[in-house]
Amino acid sequence: MSAASLRRAVRESVSGLPRAFWWLWTSTLVNRLGAFVATFMTLYLTLDRGYSASFAGLVVALHGLGGVVSSLVAGVMTDRLGRRPTLLAAQASTAFSVALLGFMEHPAAIAAVALLVGMTSNASRPAVAAMMADIVRPEDRVRAFALNYWAINLGFAVSATAAGLIAEYSYLAGFLGEAALTLVCAVLVYVKLPESRPEGGGAGASGAASGKTGAGTEIGLGTVLRDGRFMGVVGLSFLISLIFTQGSVGLPVAMGSAGFSPGDYGLVIAVNGFLIVALQIPVTRLIEHRDPQKLLVISALLAGYGFALTAFAGPVWAYGLTVCVWTLAEIVNSPTQMSLVVRLSPVHGRGRYQGVYTMSWAVAALVAPLMAGFMIDRWGAGRLWAATGVLGTVAAAGYWLLMRNLPEGDMATDPVAAGDAAAPKAAQPLPTGPALAEPLPAPADPLPTSGPVGAS
Question: Model's pTM, two decimal places?
């Protein structure tokens, strides 16, 4: 690609987005520049504090459990109180709890505060996603989510390298640094971001404002959980998340057991962030209008077998090559899946829908450390990497079946929106959810439906 073509691609990727989006983007970037706890928790507990891989897995699992709880609570808060208050509360409390974690000495205290950090740090995700959906035009959402994910990984690439070096001298400095930058994010949200919740979306209003669709269907958590099509996406997202989370729980433990230093792990995992920074935008432009079924299947296989290749890695550069494989899956997975989730969510239920979707990642963050710690302690890391290959295969088959069973017009048809109270036709294997906020694109312009981590 020539320099002129590259400049044109960059201009097309960043133009036309509202100013509020860029402040939200900046907040995301600053937050990820300070990321430390999620990346280095297992190394901190096993290498610095001398705990077993199983205990480290338990603590990180409690961090994930906090995320499971806060996903649902924050989703409801996002719809009822608003995006901005939820973000402020989440980021300010995260700053406090992360700083507190750095001073904990007793194992029980470490576990308890890790649970608190999981609750507070995960609470901002539904609000960020809902706010982005509010302020960005539907046709620009895939691009906007890609840019946001790019910011996440730009910050992660820088912080992983720097934090790896910091961790060799002082883990406490890493905790305090994350707390300081998270507090900066809270101030930035307060000063620069206006409330974006659709007018009349509060709990005290009537009609659609009270959490109802235009057809009068109440939107509560039960509504989300009964939406079969959406919950199918959530379930498959959980399997993919279970694989990707091993990059921050299984991989550092395995590398530490093999004699590598925190700095070595920081360099290896930074490959993930740098590749996403380099490839996320051009790859997103390439896949925007590709067959979503193929994208989902390929990304699941790349994720599973990319991690499975870790079993054959020896030197540091070999670990870096395996990261390259599963990073490609992550690049395809995240922004397009987020765009799909938004399109399946009614306007005044975006917070709840995003909360349940975020919960798939939070549950994975709960299960993955237990899985990694148990398997590494009992059978060694090789079995863990074999398991990721199996999970990737299962997820690929699930995506293939889900997309095959959805008729071409199913995603653009909703019996509630059409005023049809009858049950879905027998030919439709999955029930539809509440009325969609916007019509989905025609089959000639399929929605990309791949699903990470992202990883905020």
Answer: 0.66
